[in-house]
Write a structure and sequence with these properties.
By secondary structure, the protein is mainly alpha-helical. The chain is built from 28 helices and 15 strands. The strands form seven sheets. A three-stranded antiparallel beta sheet has the order 10-9-13. A two-stranded antiparallel sheet has the order 1-2. A two-stranded antiparallel sheet has the order 3-4.
């Protein structure tokens, strides 16, 4: 087979030239008619600042936050130097007498200024300490850099403030009361007037999300494909995850914006990384760069470690003293936020749904209290509490007891001990129901490995979930250890994945007109990255290497369509959503007609149609007891689980209950009176119910929409969140039913990515030590020749590395794995063009890449 190279032509920002295949994309505006925001060169940075200013509640709040960050840095350094060099601790601890301590027969109290050294002695001690001078110089340089950046940001955000006031017509005082969807709708509207992007007449919601989340989408995809070295197997600790803010910062520095990174600017990948001819050379250069950055981290490790310790001490000491049990509280880990994040999901959207799942997650983790530890904690708390009660009683009787040495310290330590012990004692009224809690958690976090279902009571499931939902104390400890561990991860782990990283960015980068180079997974195209086990069977052409794991493509598509109801999906995505809605409609209709057995769950779902609180819908959906109809007797009379669509139909009925007649009328009566129409004439024509009818995925502004009317945007957001939660449950139920009939292998935490540089293993082989689950269908079900299809949707994108070029009809490619990593594309010989000479020797040939027309 002949070898071809795909030439990539960068789309220039010109007023005279149109992008290939898009003559109507470029808009020419006369010089005199151009506004201040016409043709913004760096739209990524512009939209990110618009979003940040909205999230920080306006210019004044952002300005104060930036100023206090500068003051904090000065305070931490100055206060630490003062404590180390200007305090006489012998006087402070009463180990040395002060001259005025005793005057005649009167004893004078030692004051705090008595423990301070004179200014000349303090300055002399600082000058004589070389290490302190070095730390102050480094801190001064860093503070000066932050100050210059602060001045630059203030100038930039002043322009964003002007954009809000003059272009979007949103005063700064009202900005905290606008949702991001409202701000985004106004940005899309003024694009027609100001032409911020000259490559498209109109911007879509997806264009804005691509600009804001370009690099975050890449990070989510790399975590989803197990490309980043953040999971490890320790002989003593077992499987562990280490992903900190310092490690994340280094990843972004290497890949996206640091010197020598893969991107030449915020929106464009460097041309040499878009071709496969010199992939080995590029991998070598990337490996060397990672080595030098790792060495730099190692040299700066002492300074960063000292800063981390001081910052943690000043930040958490007061909190621990006030609430000793706070270290026993839990938080979503940095890895959990990345693993659970949808493609094209903004920060506030992610944190909103994770916060809704926090209480259920805490209850689930508390179900696994050790009985032995509980007995010990109860008795230790009894003894410590008894001594504490006596000391407090004596203190109330005579406050001079506090003057006795170490009494106050003992009271404090005993109080901390009692608080910690109580955190290990479960609530006596708590009912052990892990399966139910895990289902509630799934409704909010949307992602869960297959082998967790039915095994929620096992400690293995609990340990894996703790990697996503970790103790606050573990989070702090990992951040403190990060300066020490990060250099070794970069030098010994990330360097060996350089070739896989190069192949990843080449194979999964597409050019989108109006957005630049984006991660192809962020397109949420079920045809390119769908998974057959997640309702994409027959609609996807993706190989194992191209498939997103855990239904990430399908769930992200549903989440984005529900969150942005005005967005018009591409044809393939619209077909997927329509098919899902049709399945919901059929199953809900079958349930209502009595085709499926009745149960209490369905009754509870129907009973809450008149309630206006959206959370009651999902609550009733999750608390219903299982129906006897969900079991059927086998041939020998034994009860066997019935894997028909009963469970899915219950969720389908819940989706069907979000209907126009049952929700919009009640909401219109409840909220219109308290939320009058906006004075500026803005009306909220809300989202459509995804399951209610056969309307398009785009917002329907007709009277049959479940969300129409002048309703509060916050209420609409809650209903959209509830709708997505039920869709997530429904899709997981369908995935579970499908996977039970197909052999599968577990891929949630794969130890190696599918595009490794070694020869591909057989599909039947499973990495050692990984539990089996139902995520991938068997190889035999996927190894079929691809069918030719028509042209892709008109989003104007190219896939680098010979994968996809959008702009004309072509045959759908099929891929095969190469021994050296990467993937080759096979096309019919009649579509081949002239051969382009390849770089390198015969032993180092790049992947087979063909030019497509």
């Amino acid at each position: 087979m002949a070898h071809f190279d795909t030439e990539y032509q960068r789309l220039e920002a010109s007023d005279n030239d149109s992008p290939p295949g898009g003559d109507d994309m470029l808009v020419h505006v006369p010089e005199g008619a151009k506004s201040q925001w016409h043709h913004i060169e760096n739209l990524d940075l512009f939209f990110q600042r618009v979003y940040n200013l909205h999230q920080k509640n306006g210019f004044t709040c952002m300005l104060l936050g930036e100023i206090f960050e500068l003051v904090q840095l000065v305070f931490v350094v100055a206060f630490t130097v003062f404590l180390a060099n200007c305090v006489d601790y012998d006087i402070l601890f009463a180990n040395k007498l002060v001259n005025h301590t005793q005057r005649g027969h009167e004893t004078m109290k030692v004051t705090l200024p008595d423990a301070f050294l004179p200014a000349d002695v303090c300055s002399a001690r600082i000058r004589d300490n070389v290490f302190v001078i070095f730390i102050m110089i480094i801190a001064g340089v860093f503070w000066l850099h932050r100050f210059i950046k602060f001045i630059y940001n203030i100038c930039c955000y002043w322009e964003i403030r002007s954009f809000y006031i003059n272009a979007l017509r949103i005063p700064m005082a009202d900005l905290p009361y606008f949702t991001w969807q409202e701000v985004q709708a106004r940005i899309i509207e003024i694009q027609k007037e100001h032409q911020m992007c000259i490559h498209k007449k109109e911007l879509s919601e997806l264009d804005i999300y691509h600009r804001i989340l370009r690099f975050k989408n890449y990070m989510v995809a790399m975590v989803n494909k197990s490309l980043l070295p953040i999971r490890y197997h320790h002989p003593l600790l077992g499987n562990a995850v280490f992903y900190t803010r310092g490690l994340k910062y280094n990843f972004e520095l290497i890949f996206f914006w640091g010197p020598g990174s893969l991107f030449e600017n915020e929106w464009s990948l460097k041309p040499e990384y878009k071709r496969g001819g010199n992939r080995l050379e590029l991998a070598g250069r990337l490996s060397t760069r990672i080595l030098w950055i790792g060495v730099a981290n190692l040299l700066l490790c002492p300074i960063i470690l000292i800063w981390q310790i001081l910052y943690a001490f000043f930040s958490y000491t007061e909190v621990i003293k006030r609430e000793p049990g706070s270290l026993g509280a839990r938080c979503w880990s940095l890895y959990g936020r990345c693993y659970l994040r949808h493609f094209n999901e903004l920060d506030h959207e992610l944190m909103s749904r994770l916060s809704k799942g926090y209480k259920a997650s805490s209850k689930y983790m508390n179900c696994f209290m050790s009985p032995l530890l509980t007995v010990v904690a109860k008795n230790v708390a009894f003894f410590a509490g008894s001594i504490l009660a006596v000391l407090i009683s004596l203190t109330i009787y005579d406050e001079d007891v506090l003057a006795v040495e170490h009494v106050l310290t003992t009271i404090t330590l005993l109080g901390v001990c009692v608080t910690i012990c109580r955190s290990f004692i479960p609530d006596k009224h708590m009912v052990f129901c892990p399966e139910q809690l895990l289902k509630v958690i799934l409704a909010h976090i949307h992602y869960m490995p297959d082998h967790w279902q039915g095994n929620a009571h096992r400690y293995e499931t609990r340990d894996e979930f703790s990697q996503l939902f970790q103790y606050k104390a573990v989070f702090i400890l990992e951040e403190l250890l990060s300066p020490v561990i990060t250099p070794f991860i970069l030098i010994f782990c990330l360097r060996h994945k350089a070739l896989e990283i190069i192949d990843f960015f080449r194979n999964f980068t597409v050019e989108v007109v109006g957005a630049g180079d984006t991660c192809s997974f962020a397109q949420m195209d079920v045809r390119q990255h769908g998974h057959p086990a997640w309702m994409s069977a027959g609609k996807t052409e993706a190989s194992i290497y191209q498939q997103a794991e855990d239904g990430k493509t399908e769930l992200s598509l549903m989440h984005f369509a529900i969150t942005n109801p005005r967005w018009q999906p591409p044809r393939e995505s619209t077909h997927f959503i329509s098919q899902l809605k049709g399945k919901v409609q059929r199953e809900a209709t079958s349930r209502q007609q009595g085709a499926l057995p009745e149960n209490h769950l369905f009754t509870s779902i129907q009973s809450i149609q008149s309630e206006s609180e959206p959370h009651s819908l999902i609550a009733n959906l999750l608390v219903g007891p299982p129906s006897m109809g969900s079991f059927q007797f086998g041939r020998e009379g034994h009860a066997a689980p019935h894997i028909s669509s009963t469970g899915g139909s219950d969720v389908a009925s819940a989706l069907r209950s979000l209907s126009p007649l049952s929700t919009s009328q009640h909401l219109r009566g409840s909220y219109t009176s308290t939320h009058p129409p906006r004075s500026d004439g803005t009306e909220l024509t809300g989202a459509r119910c995804m399951a209610g009818g056969n309307t398009d995925a785009r917002t329907a502004s007709s009277g049959s929409s479940a969300w129409e009317g002048q309703l509060s945007s916050m209420v609409l957001s809650e209903y959209a969140s509830t709708e997505m939660s039920i869709h997530a449950l429904y899709m997981h139920e369908l995935h579970k039913q499908q996977s039970q009939t197909e052999p599968a292998r577990h891929t949630w935490h794969r130890q190696e990515s599918d595009d490794s540089s070694e020869s591909a293993p057989e599909e039947s082989e499973v990495p050692h030590g990984l539990p089996r689950s139902a995520t991938f269908p068997s190889a035999s079900a996927r190894q079929h020749p691809y069918q030719e299809q028509a042209a892709l949707h008109s989003s104007g994108q190219r896939r680098h590395g010979g994968t996809t070029v959008i702009g004309g009809p072509r045959a759908a490619p099929r891929f095969s794995r190469l021994p050296m990593g990467g993937w080759a594309e096979e096309v019919q010989a009649v579509r081949h063009h002239e051969t382009v000479p390849e770089e390198g020797t015969e032993e180092e040939l790049p992947p087979q890449i063909h030019k497509l027309t």
